[in-house]
Amino acid sequence: MLNTDDFRHKTTVTVRFHEVDMLGVCNNAVYINYFEHARLQYIKDIGMMPKEGIFTDGFVYFMVRNEINYRGHSYYDEELDIYTRISYIKNSSYGFDHLIVRKKTGEAIVDGKGVVARVDPHSGKSTLLSDEFISTVLAYDKDVQILRNK
C-alpha cells in the first residue's frame, strides 16, 4: 500500500455536511470528487493550468478510469489530506495515484488510481501528450515512469 512518503503533492479538504449520510459518515462516492479536486490542484500547482483558465487551450482531457479502495471512514467536519502524484506517462494518457488520510491521525481512509487521456476535440481520438507536459511533470515528480512507444 502507498504511504505519504511516496508523494510530494498534498491538498486538504474538510468533509462537508452534504457529503455525509445520516450517521455522519462520508458517502463513498464523494472520494472520487476529492480525487478530482486533488488532480486539478496538482495541475495548477505545477503550472500546467492554462493562464486563461481550464478548457481554454484547445486540449481536452477525459478521465478514462477510476479505481478506489476503501480502508476506513471519515466523518462530518473532519480534515483529510489528499496526497496525489502522477505515476506514469504513456503516449496519450497518464496515471494518477491518490492517498487520502485523516489529518489528525495519519490513518489511511482511501487510496486509488485514475487514468487521464488527452483527446482531440474534433476527432474524438486520443492524441499525443506534449513534450512540455512531460518535462513539466518530471521537473515536479522525478519518479514518474515514462512508458511511451518510440
Q: What are the salient characteristics of this protein?
A:
about 150 residues; alpha+beta; Thiol Ester Dehydrase, Chain A; six-stranded mixed sheet; 2 helices; 6 strands
Can you describe what's shown?
- There is one protein chain.
- The protein has 150 residues and is α+β, with helices and mostly antiparallel strands.
- Helices cover 17% and strands 35% of the residues.
- The chain has 2 helices and 6 strands, in the order βαββββαβ.
- It has helices spanning 30-45, 131-140; strands at residues 9-14, 60-70, 79-89, 93-102, 108-119, 145-146.
- The mean pLDDT is 93.
Q: How many β-strand stretches?
A: 6
Overall average residue pLDDT: 93
> Which parts are unreliable, with pLDDT below 50 for 5 consecutive residues or more?
none
Name the CATH architecture: Roll
Distance between the termini: 31 Å
Overall structural domain count: 1
Task: Estimate the helix proportion, in percent.
Answer: 10-25%
- CATH fold naming: Thiol Ester Dehydrase, Chain A
**What is the N-to-C succession of helices and strands?**
EHEEEEHE
Rounded radius of gyration (Å): 16 Å
Strand content: 25-35%
How many H/I helical runs?
A: 2
Q: How can the largest sheet be summarized?
A: 6 strands, mixed
CATH classification, class level:
Alpha Beta
Shape: globular
Structural class: alpha+beta
The CATH superfamily title: Hotdog Thioesterase
